[in-house]
Amino acid sequence: MQMKEIINQLITEVATMTDCKIVLPLSDETVLLDSGLDSLGFAILVARLEEEQGLDPFSDMTEVIYPRTFGEFVAIYESAK
Amino acid sequence: MNQQNNNHSLLEMLNHREKTSVLLIDEARNWSVSEVIEAAINIRGAYSQFKGKAIILALSNKIEFILWLCALDGFASKILLASEDDLVYLNDLTQLPQDSAVLVLDSGIKNFDTNTSLSDIQLTKWCLLTSGTTAKPKLIAHSLAELSSKVTSGQFGTSLRWGLLYQQSRFAGLQVILQALLGNGVLVVSKHQQLDEIIKSFVESKVDALSATPSYWRRVLMTDSFKSLSLSHITLGGEIVDDIILQQLKLAFPTAKVRHVYASTEAGVGFSVRDGKSGFPKALLVDGQLEVQDGYLWLLGADVTKNGQRIMINSGDLVRQDGERIFFLGREHGVINVGGNKVFPESVETKIRALEDVDDVRVFAKSNPIMGQLVAADIVPAYKVVDESSFKQHLIAKMRKILQKHEVPMLLFFKQEIALSHNTKVTRN
Q1: Which of A54, B7, B102, B186 lies 20 to 30 Å (CA to CA) from residue B393?
Q2: CATH code for B10-314?
Q3: Smallest CA–CA separation between B80 and chain A, in Å?
Q4: What is the pLDDT of residues B221-234, one digit of tens each?
Q5: Chain A nearest C-alpha distance from B166 (Å)
Q6: The domain at B335-414 falls in which architecture?
């Protein structure tokens, strides 16, 4: 499965778990803070990606850059693969 | 200006400010000092029966909340600051003020309890809800003088415009409110829930001072509009401040003065650090006020004992000394800090263990780059689980009904049994 698909699927799952309503469709330009996922949901998404994909790009960064858009977020995980 | 030694009420102190100057701003309008004073006096007039009573203030509208604060200080005997979410705590709080009587809510006024009222008001006590070092929330009483002891007036004649990002009923939010009101500043609040909208509103109102937790600052730096902010004063607190967030803030706001504060509801304001580095200088340690004992930071508590003394309390924060600097290591016994919200693993475990689907559970912290920490749990199911994914969803749905949102373990691991350490305690690390 492509990274974008994996992230998309997890976002839907996390949103259900945290009672957040995702503003669909998510495009590369979607600003993360406008996606409907709150900061707790976003934190859970990052933790689930670490657990399930073994990827922890934020902790591995020497200079932490926080993604602004969905596209930037996916790109960080794609380059961490 | 140092308010520590004066016993004036909030309203009396506001009376010393320039009456026509702007004091409060929200999206709807600006409030001058005299308009705030007038509104507070009107509240006193309309609710004269509140004189000498203990009032639980649980208004969500920030402007209303502040107007009521101004009215009640020096008028009510006690003000218990709360949010409607806290009411569930208040019901099983054993330490409610004995004379608590009136609950001020968005939906109106309610009697909470009926008891004797105090008639002789010298100084109103401000009661703040805390989770403290035990699993049960408790109330800590402060005087206005204590709460405002670290308020400073606008430097170089400037009057800072403080944006309120914290919840108004919490210690940190109150610090921002008092700094603006008593430090010749202006307080800007927003009715919006979305951070990007709040920041936009702060940009429009020319906010130049902001205070938030490191987790919240990380969120601010993710907004579209933060670059339009022109900040001269930045405050961080409530969580361990690391060098990364300090550097990011310096990069985003090169000319701003950045300080991190150490404060707790139990002890009041501790100290602040302005040198742009994590931790604090060893020179701040003072016997009887701020000490390191056995790796823990101890500070002078706000509460007064029966014989009228303030005693040193263990902050529960573990620290280490490196040369002339003291660094924070974290909280004792695995208390989990989810974006500034304390979660007590033992109390969450007790609630989860009560579910019929669960035989045993261990709740622990999982470090997280967004929130600092998240709550995770090892679960021993009470029956054979065929579909783990749907069982997780079923369990999370149940836990959401008995726990606060940030307390629910969203990372679940199924186990045969929960491992214990040598002293038969659940391991926390």
Answers
A1: A54
A2: 3.40.50.12780
A3: 28
A4: 878 899 999 999 99
A5: 15
A6: 2-Layer Sandwich (3.30)
